[in-house]
Amino acid sequence: MRYVWKNPPLQEDRLLQAYVRQGIHPYVAQILFYRGILPEEAASFFHFSVKDLYDPFLFSHMEKVVGRLRAAQADKEKITIYGDYDCDGVCGAAILKETLRQTGIDADVYLPDRFTEGYGTNRAAFRKIIAGGTTLILTVDCGIKSTEDVAFARENGADVMIFDHHECETLPDTPYILNPKVPAEKYPFKELSGAGIAFKIAQALLGRQALPFLQLAGVATIGDMVSLKGENRTIAALGIEQIRKSLLSGLKSLAEAAGIDSAKVDSERIGFSIVPRLNAAGRLAHADLALQLLLSKDPAECAPLAAELNRLNAQRQAMQKQATQEAAEMIRSSKNLSKTRILLVYSKAWNRGVVGLVASSLTKIFHRPAIVFTEQEGVLIGSARSIAGVNLYQVLLTCGQRYLRFGGHEMAAGLSVKKEEIEGIEEELNRFLLENYEDELFLPTVYYDLAVEQKEISTGLAKQFAALQPFGQDNEEPLLFVKSFMPAKVLKMREGMHLKLYGEKGVEAIWFYASSEVYCGENYHVSANLSVNAFRGKESGQLYVRTIEKQTGGGKQIQEKKTKDYIRGFPRELLAYYTFVRENGKEKVITEQAELLRKLHADGQRGAFGTAVFIGSMPGAELAGRLDGQGVFTQFTAMETLNPNSAENMVCYSLPDVFPRNYDNVYLLGSFRRAVDWKNAHVFLSESFRDAYREEAKAYFVPEEVLPQYGQVFEEIGGKGYLSLGAFLLEVCRRTGDADIRKSWFALNVFAERKLLQIKKNAKIYIVCRHIEKWEESRLYDVFRAVCYREV
Asked: Tens digit of pLDDT for each residue in 14-50?
């Protein structure tokens, strides 16, 4: 894992002091500066006001929209609101429905079915709506690409208003478009959500009476992952403020079902608890459930609706987890990640409602954009997610003519394609990414805001971070990098599901859904958010772990940790070396160190992916250390074990069981156990390396006449029971006067192969010796002797 500081420390003292004079911590000042908030803007950034909302009539076509709605009201026209089925579309539809009701218009709402109709407008729905007497259709969070559907509506006597925020090229033929991203639009803020635009219409029609709708607009703004700068930040912040004071009945019931205290609602609780439950309706059932909840004012009606959304969300979580596991395994077994920059996978078994969430999970696992499809009657219907630095919308446009349907923005998109097109699309998209994006973007990377030491973590700093809320796109919660976090105590919570770590200076860290063990006394790289923890009236700063990785300190430290493994594995390694040298039929044997240097350098310069060096013995580790000292591995990452989710250039100090499919250039340095099987690997075997293996073998070898002394010791002490095999071998060394544990290990292996002893494990390890006058020959002994005495 790479840890990259997003921005360099703010060095200009004059600028820094301008923040500090306002009581802003230097670390918070740095975050503000690099997020474009200058000292003179800091006060307004921390304090929100209705006055910060723009005049809705700054929209170029707002006068036309309001005029047309007033005319529809006067003529008693039938109006239908057509919304998307996600949180943004449902909240936007609810805002419009209630706004029109307050102006005297009882509008219908039509939300499409994700499974039978898909995203956006469709001809059949428009035909049905118009046949029911509708003469004015209002689309929210969709419609900007509906040129044909809008033309159909107008031909059949209905006007269409489009309230959308997605990217657009060719516009539908209607004068009633509110979309801040339309090229000629003069509205000063370009990143409103669909519900945010609906709120602007409510403002235009109702004035200050529209302010209660900030609750829904705020939830949608957080949930749709639009930029949380500018007016969106104001909408989200004021919405949260209103929710804390008095929730709408539907949101209150949903918060209760999710176990949320409304007084403590923040952007994280909205994003991870409220929004997924609203989305669950459209994902697994129908979005009408969520709409009904948001529009209801009757708590007795809201409670069962909220309970049903809660149940659907739990079902969604289980389906998402299973589909993610299946998709990840497909990628690991079929993709060469060194040549793959975008992941496309599909299955009939995956529910259409979770494919976007699965795509998002895959981007985190493999650090690549991902498109996940489900299949329906020969058509693949999918959802795409991207990673930082890759404009997904522009990438997908490169073969836009091959899609049946397509829409989205920089970080997410939806599309459908014919099944027979998928391979060609994947190849074309991948080629575009390979040619236009740097390798480094696809390396597993944590981009952090600040590097801090544990002693700098405080309650005051946590409180200032909290004041940066609401968090979201473009105003993410500050991510800290804590180097050398050494837990003094690790407490398991919820049967090990979560971990609580106690560091130095009283620092506490929580790791929810811990994916690996954490050990006291080990050093870790930790990325974490810092929040205020209130417990029994006492507040403290607490770290919430996002990633935690054992600190390796480079190849040298890994080598030191692997020494025990190398000692135990060397007998098998020398057997493999002996076989390899005798067969000597390897095509890719490198016999000169200069040639090895040249090849490694060339592969490292070729790109950041696809080259792996595997170390399997002490001679190999020592050679790797010398090469590293010469700067050969500057383009390589030192790893203790192979990461199946990455293809970055690496030096790996342990051997996988099978050839790593993500690597085209594999080098074996002292790894002869794999040399015979891995036909495509480069094997280094110079004369000096032969000498290194011979010297290593000599460090193990015990002559035949000396072996009985070890046998006697084995018999004397083997029955006492030892906590580990290492403890037994150390006692053997003490008894024999041998300082090197390798000889004891060699003797133990030879005696075991000759069937003179057996290792038994119970609560302790016991060595059971046998009195056999005639023993079987030991191939291990013969091979070591042959290597030591230059017989091979």
From this structure: 999 999 999 999 999 999 999 999 999 999 899 999 9
What per-residue confidence (pLDDT) applies to 554? Answer: 64
3-state secondary structure of 480: strand
Instruction: Write phi, then psi, for 739 (nearest 5 degrees).
Output: -80, -20
Question: Which structure tokens are listed for 47?
Answer: 């304090």
- Rounded-to-integer distance, Cα 789 and Cα 782, Å: 11
3 state DSSP class of 496: coil
CB neighbour class for 108 (10 Å; exposed up to 12, middle 13-18, buried from 19): middle
From 61, 64, 234, 281, select the one nearest 164 (Cα to Cα): 61
Strands, E assignment, 311-460:
343-347, 370-376, 379-385, 405-408, 412-418, 445-448, 450-452
From CA 287, how far away is CA 295, in angstroms rounded?
A: 13
Judged on CB neighbours under 10 Å (0-12, 13-18, 19+), 135 is middle
Contacts of 326 (CB under 8 A, 6+ apart): 347, 349, 350
pLDDT at 566: 93
d(CA 90, CA 567): 63
Q: What is the pTM of this model?
A: 0.85
**Cβ–Cβ < 8 Å for 210, 199:** yes
DSSP secondary structure, 528-558, as one string: EEEEEEEETTEEEEEEEEEEEEE---SHHHH
> What DSSP state is assigned to residue 227?
B
What pLDDT is attached to residue 743? 96
Is 501:509 a contact under the CB 8 Å cutoff?
A: yes
* Phi and psi torsions of 531, nearest 5°: -130, 165
The span from the CA of 293 to the CA of 254, in Å, is 9
pLDDT value at residue 773: 57
Hey, how many other C-beta atoms are within 10 angstroms of the C-beta on 352? 18
Give pLDDT, residue 676: 82
Element (H, E) at 590: strand 589-590
Least Cα distance to 610 among 600, 623, 621 occurs for 600
Q: Order of strands, edge to edge, in the sheet holding 405-408?
A: 343-347, 370-376, 379-385, 412-418, 405-408
**Burial (CB count <10 Å: 0-12, 13-18, 19+), residue 536:** exposed
- The Cα 160–Cα 103 span in angstroms is 19
Instruction: Give the tokens for residue 490.
Output: 């690790």
Write out residues in the chain with pLDDT < 70, as ranges.
552-554, 584-586, 771-776
DSSP type of residue 402: G
**Do residues 207 and 250 make contact, with C-beta atoms less than 8 angstroms apart?**
no
| Beta bridge mates, 408 | 413
Residue 500 β-bridge partners: 491, 510
H/E run at residue 372 = strand 370-376
Q: Cα(179)–Cα(62) distance, rounded to whole angstroms?
A: 10
Q: How far is CA 216 from CA 281, 309, 353, 404, 405, in A?
A: 16, 17, 22, 33, 29
The answer to whether the beta carbons of residues 86 and 282 sit under 8 Å apart is: yes
Dist CA 76 CA 584 (whole Å): 91
Residue 534: per-residue pLDDT? 84
Burial of 703 (0-12, 13-18, 19+ CB in 10 A): exposed
The string of DSSP letters for 342-372 reads SEEEEETTS-TTTHHHHHHHHHHHHSS-EEE
Cβ atoms of residues 442 and 473 within 8 Å = no
d(CA 563, CA 356): 45
